[in-house]
Amino acid sequence: MKVHLPESLDALWDLLDQHPQAGIMAGGTDLLVSLRAGKQHLPTVICLERLAPLQTIEPLDQTLRIGAGVTLTRILENSLVHTHLPLLHKSVASLGSPLVRNMATLGGNICTASPAGDTLPALYVLGAKLSLASAKGRRILPLESFIQGPGKTALAKGEILDSVIIPFPAGFGVQHFEKLGQRNALAISVVSFAALIRTQDNLVQRARFAWGSVGPTIVRSPQAEKALEGNPLSLEALLRVADLARAAVEPITDVRASADYRRRVAGNMVLRLAAL
Ligand SMILES: Cc1cc2nc3c(=O)[nH]c(=O)nc-3n(C[C@H](O)[C@H](O)[C@H](O)COP(=O)(O)OP(=O)(O)OC[C@H]3O[C@@H](n4cnc5c(N)ncnc54)[C@H](O)[C@@H]3O)c2cc1C
Question: Which pTM was predicted?
Protein backbone atom coordinates (compact mmCIF):
# COMPACT_ATOMS: atom_id res chain seq x y z
CA MET A 1 0.00 0.00 0.00
CA LYS A 2 1.25 3.49 -0.86
CA VAL A 3 0.72 6.24 1.71
CA HIS A 4 0.81 9.94 0.75
CA LEU A 5 1.01 12.90 3.11
CA PRO A 6 0.18 16.03 1.06
CA GLU A 7 1.10 19.36 2.63
CA SER A 8 -1.21 21.59 0.60
CA LEU A 9 -4.74 21.37 -0.77
CA ASP A 10 -3.38 21.68 -4.33
CA ALA A 11 -1.14 18.65 -3.72
CA LEU A 12 -4.18 16.81 -2.30
CA TRP A 13 -6.31 17.54 -5.38
CA ASP A 14 -3.50 16.25 -7.64
CA LEU A 15 -3.21 13.05 -5.60
CA LEU A 16 -6.98 12.48 -5.60
CA ASP A 17 -6.97 12.97 -9.36
CA GLN A 18 -4.06 10.54 -9.89
CA HIS A 19 -5.42 7.91 -7.45
CA PRO A 20 -9.22 7.82 -7.77
CA GLN A 21 -9.37 4.57 -5.76
CA ALA A 22 -7.37 6.01 -2.83
CA GLY A 23 -8.77 6.01 0.70
CA ILE A 24 -8.68 9.16 2.80
CA MET A 25 -7.31 8.94 6.31
CA ALA A 26 -7.57 11.49 9.11
CA GLY A 27 -6.83 9.98 12.56
CA GLY A 28 -7.22 6.43 11.26
CA THR A 29 -9.17 5.18 14.30
CA ASP A 30 -11.99 3.90 12.07
CA LEU A 31 -10.13 3.38 8.80
CA LEU A 32 -7.20 1.36 10.20
CA VAL A 33 -9.57 -0.88 12.18
CA SER A 34 -11.52 -1.57 9.00
CA LEU A 35 -8.34 -2.22 6.93
CA ARG A 36 -6.88 -4.53 9.56
CA ALA A 37 -10.14 -6.47 9.76
CA GLY A 38 -9.92 -6.98 5.98
CA LYS A 39 -13.22 -5.14 5.39
CA GLN A 40 -11.53 -2.81 2.90
CA HIS A 41 -8.52 -3.14 0.59
CA LEU A 42 -6.95 0.11 -0.53
CA PRO A 43 -4.04 0.40 -2.95
CA THR A 44 -3.33 3.94 -1.79
CA VAL A 45 -4.07 5.97 1.32
CA ILE A 46 -3.93 9.76 1.40
CA CYS A 47 -3.50 11.26 4.88
CA LEU A 48 -4.97 14.65 5.77
CA GLU A 49 -2.91 15.35 8.88
CA ARG A 50 -0.43 17.81 7.30
CA LEU A 51 -3.11 20.02 5.72
CA ALA A 52 -3.03 23.22 7.79
CA PRO A 53 -6.46 24.55 6.62
CA LEU A 54 -8.12 21.49 8.19
CA GLN A 55 -6.49 22.08 11.57
CA THR A 56 -7.98 25.40 12.73
CA ILE A 57 -10.82 26.36 15.08
CA GLU A 58 -12.17 29.84 14.32
CA PRO A 59 -15.18 31.85 15.56
CA LEU A 60 -17.14 33.65 12.83
CA ASP A 61 -20.45 35.56 13.26
CA GLN A 62 -21.89 33.58 16.17
CA THR A 63 -20.65 30.29 14.72
CA LEU A 64 -17.58 28.16 15.29
CA ARG A 65 -15.78 26.72 12.28
CA ILE A 66 -13.91 23.57 13.25
CA GLY A 67 -11.47 22.14 10.71
CA ALA A 68 -12.32 18.54 9.83
CA GLY A 69 -8.82 17.42 10.86
CA VAL A 70 -8.99 18.87 14.38
CA THR A 71 -8.64 16.08 16.93
CA LEU A 72 -11.29 15.49 19.55
CA THR A 73 -8.75 16.26 22.30
CA ARG A 74 -8.18 19.73 20.80
CA ILE A 75 -11.94 20.29 20.67
CA LEU A 76 -12.22 19.40 24.37
CA GLU A 77 -9.40 21.83 25.20
CA ASN A 78 -10.87 24.73 23.22
CA SER A 79 -12.30 27.49 25.41
CA LEU A 80 -14.90 28.59 22.81
CA VAL A 81 -16.27 25.05 22.65
CA HIS A 82 -16.33 24.95 26.43
CA THR A 83 -18.18 28.26 26.73
CA HIS A 84 -20.53 28.28 23.74
CA LEU A 85 -20.97 24.62 22.80
CA PRO A 86 -21.16 22.63 26.06
CA LEU A 87 -23.38 20.09 24.28
CA LEU A 88 -20.64 19.32 21.75
CA HIS A 89 -18.11 19.21 24.58
CA LYS A 90 -20.15 16.60 26.48
CA SER A 91 -20.59 14.40 23.42
CA VAL A 92 -16.90 14.55 22.46
CA ALA A 93 -15.90 13.74 26.06
CA SER A 94 -17.97 10.56 25.90
CA LEU A 95 -16.23 9.24 22.76
CA GLY A 96 -13.65 6.48 23.18
CA SER A 97 -10.73 7.14 25.52
CA PRO A 98 -8.06 9.86 25.78
CA LEU A 99 -5.80 7.81 23.49
CA VAL A 100 -8.54 7.49 20.86
CA ARG A 101 -9.46 11.18 21.16
CA ASN A 102 -5.80 12.19 20.65
CA MET A 103 -5.96 10.67 17.16
CA ALA A 104 -9.65 10.77 16.18
CA THR A 105 -10.98 13.82 14.35
CA LEU A 106 -14.40 15.44 14.17
CA GLY A 107 -14.38 15.02 10.38
CA GLY A 108 -13.68 11.30 10.77
CA ASN A 109 -16.60 10.80 13.14
CA ILE A 110 -18.92 12.56 10.67
CA CYS A 111 -17.63 10.83 7.51
CA THR A 112 -17.85 7.38 9.12
CA ALA A 113 -21.60 8.14 9.26
CA SER A 114 -22.28 5.53 11.92
CA PRO A 115 -25.70 5.76 13.61
CA ALA A 116 -23.66 5.34 16.82
CA GLY A 117 -21.29 8.24 16.05
CA ASP A 118 -21.21 10.08 19.36
CA THR A 119 -20.82 13.62 18.06
CA LEU A 120 -23.70 13.32 15.59
CA PRO A 121 -26.82 13.82 17.79
CA ALA A 122 -25.26 17.00 19.22
CA LEU A 123 -24.26 18.29 15.77
CA TYR A 124 -27.79 17.58 14.44
CA VAL A 125 -29.57 19.61 17.14
CA LEU A 126 -26.97 22.37 16.88
CA GLY A 127 -27.79 22.69 13.16
CA ALA A 128 -24.21 22.04 11.98
CA LYS A 129 -23.35 22.68 8.34
CA LEU A 130 -20.49 21.03 6.48
CA SER A 131 -18.04 22.62 4.09
CA LEU A 132 -17.05 20.15 1.36
CA ALA A 133 -14.03 21.00 -0.78
CA SER A 134 -12.62 19.64 -4.03
CA ALA A 135 -10.44 20.86 -6.90
CA LYS A 136 -13.64 22.44 -8.32
CA GLY A 137 -14.39 24.58 -5.26
CA ARG A 138 -16.54 24.40 -2.12
CA ARG A 139 -20.14 23.61 -1.29
CA ILE A 140 -22.00 23.86 2.01
CA LEU A 141 -24.44 21.14 3.06
CA PRO A 142 -26.52 20.69 6.22
CA LEU A 143 -25.30 17.66 8.18
CA GLU A 144 -28.71 15.98 7.79
CA SER A 145 -28.35 16.04 3.99
CA PHE A 146 -24.75 14.83 4.12
CA ILE A 147 -25.46 11.63 6.04
CA GLN A 148 -27.55 9.35 3.86
CA GLY A 149 -27.44 6.01 5.68
CA PRO A 150 -25.11 3.84 7.75
CA GLY A 151 -21.64 4.52 6.31
CA LYS A 152 -23.17 6.48 3.41
CA THR A 153 -22.49 10.17 2.80
CA ALA A 154 -22.98 12.75 0.08
CA LEU A 155 -19.20 13.04 -0.47
CA ALA A 156 -18.47 13.04 -4.21
CA LYS A 157 -15.32 11.55 -5.78
CA GLY A 158 -12.37 13.87 -5.28
CA GLU A 159 -14.13 15.71 -2.46
CA ILE A 160 -13.26 16.00 1.23
CA LEU A 161 -14.96 17.43 4.28
CA ASP A 162 -12.86 20.47 5.12
CA SER A 163 -14.72 22.03 8.05
CA VAL A 164 -17.79 21.90 10.26
CA ILE A 165 -19.70 25.15 10.88
CA ILE A 166 -21.64 25.13 14.16
CA PRO A 167 -23.98 27.99 15.19
CA PHE A 168 -23.80 29.04 18.84
CA PRO A 169 -27.17 28.04 20.34
CA ALA A 170 -27.94 31.45 21.86
CA GLY A 171 -30.56 31.36 24.61
CA PHE A 172 -30.70 27.56 24.85
CA GLY A 173 -30.11 27.19 28.59
CA VAL A 174 -30.49 23.41 28.59
CA GLN A 175 -27.80 21.57 26.62
CA HIS A 176 -27.98 17.91 27.50
CA PHE A 177 -26.21 14.81 26.16
CA GLU A 178 -26.49 11.29 27.46
CA LYS A 179 -24.96 8.07 26.16
CA LEU A 180 -25.79 4.59 27.30
CA GLY A 181 -23.21 1.90 26.53
CA GLN A 182 -22.49 -1.54 27.91
CA ARG A 183 -19.92 0.06 30.21
CA ASN A 184 -19.00 3.61 31.14
CA ALA A 185 -15.88 4.07 29.01
CA LEU A 186 -14.67 2.87 25.61
CA ALA A 187 -18.13 1.64 24.67
CA ILE A 188 -20.11 2.05 21.48
CA SER A 189 -23.44 3.64 22.34
CA VAL A 190 -26.53 1.46 22.74
CA VAL A 191 -28.64 4.65 22.70
CA SER A 192 -27.54 8.29 22.78
CA PHE A 193 -29.60 11.42 23.15
CA ALA A 194 -28.94 15.13 22.64
CA ALA A 195 -31.32 17.93 23.64
CA LEU A 196 -31.29 21.70 23.32
CA ILE A 197 -34.04 23.58 25.14
CA ARG A 198 -34.83 27.29 25.36
CA THR A 199 -37.26 28.38 28.06
CA GLN A 200 -38.99 31.63 28.89
CA ASP A 201 -40.99 32.25 32.09
CA ASN A 202 -40.53 28.55 32.96
CA LEU A 203 -42.17 27.39 29.72
CA VAL A 204 -40.35 25.64 26.90
CA GLN A 205 -40.15 27.97 23.91
CA ARG A 206 -38.10 25.75 21.59
CA ALA A 207 -36.91 22.15 21.92
CA ARG A 208 -34.59 20.17 19.65
CA PHE A 209 -33.97 16.46 20.16
CA ALA A 210 -31.84 13.83 18.39
CA TRP A 211 -31.23 10.15 19.17
CA GLY A 212 -28.31 7.96 18.09
CA SER A 213 -28.09 4.17 17.64
CA VAL A 214 -31.86 3.82 17.20
CA GLY A 215 -32.17 3.98 13.41
CA PRO A 216 -30.11 3.86 10.22
CA THR A 217 -29.13 7.49 10.81
CA ILE A 218 -29.66 9.95 13.65
CA VAL A 219 -33.38 10.23 14.48
CA ARG A 220 -35.19 13.56 14.97
CA SER A 221 -38.83 13.90 16.02
CA PRO A 222 -40.50 17.22 15.20
CA GLN A 223 -43.67 15.83 16.87
CA ALA A 224 -41.84 15.25 20.16
CA GLU A 225 -40.27 18.71 19.97
CA LYS A 226 -43.60 20.44 19.30
CA ALA A 227 -45.31 18.47 22.09
CA LEU A 228 -42.97 20.00 24.66
CA GLU A 229 -43.16 23.59 23.42
CA GLY A 230 -45.45 25.79 25.53
CA ASN A 231 -45.19 23.40 28.50
CA PRO A 232 -43.05 23.45 31.61
CA LEU A 233 -40.12 21.02 31.70
CA SER A 234 -42.17 18.78 33.98
CA LEU A 235 -42.33 15.00 34.24
CA GLU A 236 -45.96 15.13 33.12
CA ALA A 237 -45.12 16.92 29.85
CA LEU A 238 -42.02 14.78 29.29
CA LEU A 239 -44.03 11.54 29.64
CA ARG A 240 -45.97 12.54 26.49
CA VAL A 241 -42.72 13.44 24.73
CA ALA A 242 -41.19 10.09 25.70
CA ASP A 243 -44.10 8.24 24.06
CA LEU A 244 -43.60 10.23 20.86
CA ALA A 245 -39.87 9.51 21.00
CA ARG A 246 -40.52 5.77 21.27
CA ALA A 247 -42.84 6.02 18.25
CA ALA A 248 -40.23 7.91 16.20
CA VAL A 249 -37.20 5.65 16.64
CA GLU A 250 -36.54 2.61 14.43
CA PRO A 251 -34.03 0.52 16.38
CA ILE A 252 -32.67 -2.89 15.44
CA THR A 253 -31.62 -5.81 17.60
CA ASP A 254 -27.87 -6.48 17.51
CA VAL A 255 -25.11 -7.85 19.76
CA ARG A 256 -25.34 -4.86 22.07
CA ALA A 257 -29.10 -4.64 22.74
CA SER A 258 -32.56 -5.61 21.55
CA ALA A 259 -34.74 -3.25 19.55
CA ASP A 260 -37.33 -3.21 22.36
CA TYR A 261 -34.77 -2.22 24.96
CA ARG A 262 -33.41 0.57 22.76
CA ARG A 263 -36.93 1.91 22.12
CA ARG A 264 -37.71 1.97 25.85
CA VAL A 265 -34.42 3.68 26.73
CA ALA A 266 -34.84 6.30 23.98
CA GLY A 267 -38.03 7.43 25.74
CA ASN A 268 -36.60 7.11 29.23
CA MET A 269 -33.69 9.39 28.34
CA VAL A 270 -36.17 12.20 27.66
CA LEU A 271 -37.55 11.90 31.20
CA ARG A 272 -34.13 12.75 32.60
CA LEU A 273 -34.68 16.35 31.42
CA ALA A 274 -37.14 16.85 34.30
CA ALA A 275 -34.29 16.47 36.78
CA LEU A 276 -32.01 19.10 35.20
C1 LIG B 1 -10.92 1.85 20.56
C2 LIG B 1 -11.90 2.71 19.81
C3 LIG B 1 -12.97 3.28 20.47
C4 LIG B 1 -13.89 4.07 19.79
N5 LIG B 1 -14.93 4.61 20.49
C6 LIG B 1 -15.84 5.37 19.85
C7 LIG B 1 -16.93 5.94 20.56
O8 LIG B 1 -17.08 5.77 21.77
N9 LIG B 1 -17.82 6.69 19.86
C10 LIG B 1 -17.70 6.93 18.51
O11 LIG B 1 -18.52 7.65 17.95
N12 LIG B 1 -16.66 6.41 17.82
C13 LIG B 1 -15.74 5.64 18.44
N14 LIG B 1 -14.69 5.11 17.74
C15 LIG B 1 -14.60 5.35 16.30
C16 LIG B 1 -13.65 6.50 15.88
O17 LIG B 1 -12.67 6.76 16.85
C18 LIG B 1 -14.39 7.81 15.58
O19 LIG B 1 -15.43 7.61 14.63
C20 LIG B 1 -13.44 8.89 15.06
O21 LIG B 1 -14.01 10.17 15.22
C22 LIG B 1 -13.00 8.71 13.62
O23 LIG B 1 -12.11 9.77 13.29
P24 LIG B 1 -10.74 9.50 12.54
O25 LIG B 1 -10.10 10.82 12.32
O26 LIG B 1 -9.92 8.50 13.26
O27 LIG B 1 -11.29 8.90 11.17
P28 LIG B 1 -10.55 7.95 10.11
O29 LIG B 1 -10.48 6.56 10.63
O30 LIG B 1 -9.30 8.57 9.63
O31 LIG B 1 -11.63 8.04 8.93
C32 LIG B 1 -12.92 7.52 9.09
C33 LIG B 1 -13.65 7.59 7.75
O34 LIG B 1 -13.92 8.94 7.38
C35 LIG B 1 -13.23 9.30 6.18
N36 LIG B 1 -12.70 10.65 6.42
C37 LIG B 1 -12.06 11.06 7.54
N38 LIG B 1 -11.84 12.38 7.49
C39 LIG B 1 -12.34 12.80 6.30
C40 LIG B 1 -12.44 14.07 5.66
N41 LIG B 1 -11.98 15.19 6.26
N42 LIG B 1 -13.01 14.15 4.44
C43 LIG B 1 -13.49 13.03 3.85
N44 LIG B 1 -13.45 11.79 4.39
C45 LIG B 1 -12.88 11.69 5.61
C46 LIG B 1 -12.19 8.24 5.96
O47 LIG B 1 -11.93 8.04 4.58
C48 LIG B 1 -12.85 7.02 6.59
O49 LIG B 1 -13.76 6.45 5.68
C50 LIG B 1 -13.74 4.31 18.40
C51 LIG B 1 -12.64 3.75 17.72
C52 LIG B 1 -11.73 2.96 18.41
C53 LIG B 1 -10.56 2.38 17.66
Answer: 0.97
